[in-house]
Amino acid sequence: MLARLRRIVLEFSQEADLQRALDRLVTQVKRAINTDCCSVYLADYKSQSFLLKASDGLAKDSLGHTAIGFSEGLIGLVGQREEPINIANAQLHPHFKLAPEVKEDDLKAFLGTPIIHQRKVLGILTIQQKQARTFDEDEEAFLVTLSAQLSGAIANAEARGMVGKYSEISPWTKQLTGIAGAAGVALAKAIVCQPDADLANIALIKMPNQQAVEQEKQRFYQAVVKTRADFELLSSQLGNIVSDDSLDIFEMYKHLLTSASLGQEINEEISKGWRAESALKLIIDRYVVQFEALDDIYIRERGSDIRDLGNRILVNLLQAQKQTKDLPESFILVAEEVTASMLAQYQHQGLKAIVSFSGSNNSHAAILARALGVPAIMGVESIPLSQLDQQMMIVDGYSGELFISPNEALQAEYQYLIAEEKALTEQVRTVIDLPCITQDGYSIDLLLNAGLASGFEQSSHCGAQGIGLYRTEIPFMERQSFPTEQEQAKLYQQVLTAFDKQPVTMRTLDVGGDKALPYFPIEEENPFLGWRGIRITLDHPEIFLLQVRAMMRANINTHNLEIMLPMIASVTEVDEAISLINQAYYELCAEFKHKIAKPKVGIMLEVPAVIFQLDKLAERVDFFSVGSNDLTQYLLAVDRNNARVASLYDSYNPAVLNALNMIAQQAKQHSITLSLCGELAGDPAGAILLLAMGYDKLSMNPHNIARIKWIIRHISRQQAQTILTHVLSLNTAKQVHSYLKEQLDQLGFGGFIRAGL
Ligand code: PEP
Ligand code: MG
């Protein structure tokens, strides 16, 4: 049964067309359970009803027409109760509602299970049988498991627009909502960065006019020529290595490519107005279905060869498009997964915003986007990338809303908001060189988070009083092997000299978790709970010693280095790390034949265990810096990168805020300098709360320094403390957010948390 279930789910998710997938599914389930009927109803929230989409057993002409209200009949009951309902004789049930057109008069037994994705009922899967009986436990378990596994695929299909789930703003505007990754708004054309070509992701799109037909045919022809050349090359390269038999497949591909039929059929579809990719998909899908319907296993297998061939042509179609695609003056980058390197590559080429289908608001790509001041939306449900390419879109990085091909009125509205935002940015820039001091004279240091992107030197003029967190892992990540001591020293020296009159806190290597080194792979089931940060460097003292030696060597003239240890979870780790730092220090003194500057050493507070040993830790180090990104993740047991649990990851959760407050109180008791270098510091409300708690320093990305300085200069500490007192009395993150939003609005800071002033 399990193997069968797996196959059904696999085939369902591989089918690009939802209707075809549903049609096949009902037949397979009916057969697997050996019953008389299986049906799927999908929820339509606009009409508040479940629409009968597919059935093997109910009248064919009711498919797509019969709709059952959310509170009607047994189908409505399953949806309302959000649990399976198993009845021996449905027709006797008080909720039974007769829909004569489906012709179910002789079907007595009924089992319905809800299909739920992220707490939302997407539809109902039912089985029915003529004989009056309760379906047994195994059958019920089968259906429940199947529904749970189908839900993701159905949600994806809906997001791809197959069943029209986009909420419509106007006939031309489609709206999707993701996770607000970086504040700001942008309006520009989308440029899609597509690493893997797959026909399954290609949407069927018609060309705007018939004139493009010849051009599309030409594109298709070029792609075929290129694909044929690829096969020639592949088979000649492999010719010496593998047997002739194994090369047959290439011969078959070449033959198919030259055969008149395939090309001709695709050209015919293009003539009907389809784009080349769509025409290719239509024909290849048609062939695959024909092959798969055959009984002969060998011939059936050829279906996947045809699909492979189609994907190879697609690669060349998209490639050719990419080469001819000049970047417009301004654009929004869209990708399945926007990576930090993509951001780095496009940041100076007109990049206005990013949209990433995967990732969450604490993925490093989102952190980098915030650092660059580039609005970002993360974790948008995936829709075919090619459908978005070149489309006009609006990214609202405050709310996470993405508007695709917005109508003129919406464009005009956002243009206005963008202008307002620009004015706000100019306004806050006026405080860059002024002290960071509240209206009642309390001062707090604002420092810079650096190291995620090159070009930090320009940031030396953003109004910060030094670097509070220099992430050293990026230079390690961009290489083919560990950098040498000399190479590291040279790089660190550049940083220390760029900020030579100010403290620079360099963090020792914090790889593991979601940051991997290409030449030092770590395979783990739970990387965030595994070998990460200080755990790796203590196990490899040679790497640690080299790095701290390089840091201290770089500090010879500037004397502004401070060393910070990441992921500390115990006193022992601190003792061991300090002893290695001392060893490196004495070695260097001996080498230079004189005493060199000894840097301050501090630790990051990001593993909850340290909160309960602050007294012992304070005796050993010079400063604490809270890594609120990880502290939130570990306190709440929520993966900071997982879009599925993104709504649970919240630094404004009362548990996190109370922990931060507790840390501040204890740091005061032990008279140890306390800073916070997670994303919370650069958030307007976060900065106000941390100011009230008594944090000495806040470290944030360059983009936020002026904004936070402006806020701090326009509030008194007394006001901040009143807000904090109320916040600490609240029970839920939701209450905290709505209270803080209201307060920021009242204080005139609304423009910092949403589009428009
Ligand atoms: C943090 O965890 O808050 C932090 C600043 O470090 P990173 O985001 O690099 O893990
Ligand atoms: Mg961290």
Structure description:
It is a single chain. By secondary structure, the chain is α/β, with parallel strands linked by helices. Among the domains are: 162 residues, Beta-Lactamase, CATH 3.30.450.40; 100 residues, 3-Layer(bba) Sandwich (Glucose Oxidase, domain 1); 120 residues, Enzyme I, Chain A, domain 2, CATH 1.10.274. The chain has 25 helices and 23 strands. Helix 19 links the parallel strand 20 and strand 21. Helix 5 packs across helix 9. The radius of gyration is 30 Å and the shape is globular.
Reconstruct the topology from this structure:
Layout: H1 2-14, H2 18-33, E1 37-44, E2 49-56, E3 67-69, H3 73-81, E4 85-87, E5 109-117, E6 120-129, H4 137-159, E7 167-170, E8 173-177, E9 179-182, E10 185-193, H5 212-238, H6 248-258, H7 260-271, H8 276-292, H9 297-324, E11 331-335, H10 340-346, E12 351-356, H11 364-372, E13 376-378, H12 385-388, E14 392-396, E15 401-404, H13 408-429, E16 445-450, E17 467-471, H14 473-477, H15 485-498, E18 504-507, H16 534-539, H17 541-554, E19 561-565, H18 571-592, E20 600-605, H19 614-618, E21 623-626, H20 628-636, H21 654-669, E22 673-676, H22 684-693, E23 697-700, H23 702-713, H24 717-728, H25 733-746
Parallel strand pairs: 10-11, 11-12, 12-13, 16-17, 16-23, 17-18, 18-19, 19-20, 20-21, 21-22, 22-23
Antiparallel strand pairs: 1-2, 1-6, 2-3, 4-5, 5-6, 7-8, 8-15, 9-13, 10-14, 14-15
Helix pairs in contact: 1-2, 1-4, 5-6, 5-7, 5-9, 7-8, 8-9, 15-17, 17-18, 22-23, 22-24
This protein binds phosphoenolpyruvate (PEP) and magnesium ion.
